[in-house]
Amino acid sequence: MGRARRQPRNESRHRHAVRGVSGAPDHERAGIDLFRLHLPGGAAGTGRVHAGHGQIPWLSPDRTDALQGLPQRRGKSQVIGWWKTWKALEARGIMGINRRNADYVLKYNKRSLYPVVDDKIITKERAIAAGIHVPEMYGVISTEKEIDRLDEIIGGHNDFVIKPAQGAGGDGILVIADRFEERFRTVSGRIISHAEIEHQVSSILTGLYSLGGHRDRALIEYRVVPDPIFKSISYEGVPDIRIIVLMGYPVMAMLRLPTRQSGGKANLHQGAIGVGVDLATGVTLQGTWLNNIISKHPDTTHSVDGVQLPNWDGFMKLAAECYELCGLGYIGVDMVLDKDKGPLILELNARPGLNIQIANDSGLTHRTQAVEARLEQLALEGRQESALERVDFVQQLFGHVPSA
Q1: What is the pLDDT of residues 224-279, one digit of tens each?
Q2: Which of 78, 152, 231, 289 is most buried, taking the most CB atoms under 10 A from its CB?
Q3: Domains identified in the chain, total number
Q4: What is the DSSP letter of 372?
């Protein structure tokens, strides 16, 4: 299949470097650790940044945290090396955690609207009301007493998913693939009893998997069956697509592929693969896995780049519409491709990670600044763009140019 290479266009310079990430959640720090950026020869300087010629493979948390205080504790040559590294990241428009939080999350996301994305049930209810496609919701269990309704909710479904409404990272999710006599078979092949399912629901209600550790609700929903296109490039589980959206404009996309190491979860920090996606065509770009740039899936050995994702414009339109759905200006939209139902919204994230930049070999800042400039222009003209117009704008501006 056709490959694609990066061709940055109309992207202004980044004013902030990757800075201290002390105190940031592990899953956010990992986004900085994964950077593998190809820079002009010598850009890495002489600083100790684990770099080969012309590369910045990754910056560990202690080193990124040290940037602000570097002049007081490093020698002159190391300071120069760090400065070159900093400027190289800046030139590529790499967005760091501080910039993401201050200039985008805090600026565009009202705290009062966080429950819309932090609670999967609220997200799903809003999506259904707006006519946006999501996995069908079979039922919700909110109290211990309601666990008695589990059989009623499951009904005649042989497969289903139970997940915490306010969980994160895939924790607490139970995926049932089939029934086995009076018991159930999980996607991993484990046979469990009805009592074990009830125990899992009870654990969810106690808040064992919730973001703040407070009481939660259990959501029972349709089990997504991945489109056959993923069979050769994914290990078990369900691959998903993350698109970062600023004020309704999709700015960057990534396909996340489960591996044996990730336990079938599409979670990069547990060992899944992140693969960049061309916004214009839906063709996959390079992959990143465990701090390495890869072209093949480690379990299936099939190429992960150059794959044409079906119904790509449908994914882009869904992502763009999520701005009106939740009211938050800077979000990560997680979607899946079901073999029968097509593109579906799984969940939204008000604090999307930064490692999507690695898979795309491109910084977020240049793109977000281009969108902000577009918004300023539209404000002067006194008009707004529809979801389809927003998609067309970013596909023209951020789409990659196929190699000859």
Answers
A1: 999 999 999 998 889 999 999 999 999 999 999 999 998 888 888 889 999 999 99
A2: 289
A3: 3
A4: H
